[in-house]
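Allow me, if you will, to draw on your knowledge of protein folds for a short while. I have a record of one protein: its chain in single-letter code and its fold written as discrete structure tokens. I remain grateful for any guidance, and I place the record below:
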Amino acid sequence: MIDVDSDGDRDVVLAVENGISRLYLNDGKGRLTWKQGAFGTTKRDNEHVRVADFDHDGHMDVVFVAEDTRQHQLYFGDGKGGFADASDQLPRRSQGNALAVGDVNGDALPDIVIGNSSEAGEGGAKPDPHNFLWLNDASRPGRFIDASDTHLPRNAEDAQGIALADMDGDGDLDMVVANQTPPNKLLLNDGKGHFNDASNQLDLRTPLETREVHVFDANRDGKPDILFLNLTSNNKAWDKNPQSRLLVNDGKARFRDETAARLPKHRFSSWGGTVIDLNGDRAPDLLVGAIQVPGFTPLQLRAWTNDGRGRFADTTAAVVPATMVGRSWSMATGDLDGDGKPDILVGGWGTQVRLLLTGPAPAAD
């Protein structure tokens, strides 16, 4: 959700898998109109989208990561709702599935991290699953230096999600990598964009097939915690435990699995979710997508409300409309209707994309 046309409200950019990614313009009241052709007319296998001012011109730009079509896309915004294709300025192609942006080397320019897959592509050839780090060129903002081989550990990570956050309190952005093939990874930044593997600081008690990772302060102690959203399998037989996992920071950048005491127990698989304050108490709550596997059966979106100390209760019945049944995918939050409350766009795989406008907080007992 970004303001692409400088009219003061947030618009929506949607990455479309095996289709044409979309731009929806907001009328300021949360009503969205599709602006066709904003990102071309060619179908791509786009998995995720992130936004930043890559070329340092004061307007927001857009980057998409592609899987099967292997051509990642970069578009520069003009601040008037238009976008110019600058994909040829991205260094490499790959079978990507994870995407994050942030300033990892301290030069005040957003850099790009691409998480790559090891699944066999067209013709059965297996790609190189080494992840990419592209540093924004300070002498030519919007062009990128491929630092993958010099700045990242060469691990076959099979990434599905990446979060950039300061995990160890030293002021720079570290990296948490959610992998389809276990284990997940923690990479610590030296402040100049070089990452070292510190995955031994993650308490990973069971093999996880993880699709998304979120970093947030669950228990409000001022330290970042980690949420992994997991599958039992990618719409196949029952395999791994899909229970969502919450790893709590001990204050020394070591992360303990405290799932049993803090999260509702479940057997559904989750491809996506979001962190959001649902009740206005300034404690981070969670919306979690739910799909029954085996069967890939659509289920109702789940709401888990924080007690303020990092323990979450299932409050779905009181928070989420009963019509919110689908194969919920990645989500975005932001105030679309101008009422000062965060709204939620919920992506769907083969089911309707949903827009939830947040209503008034419930009255206190």
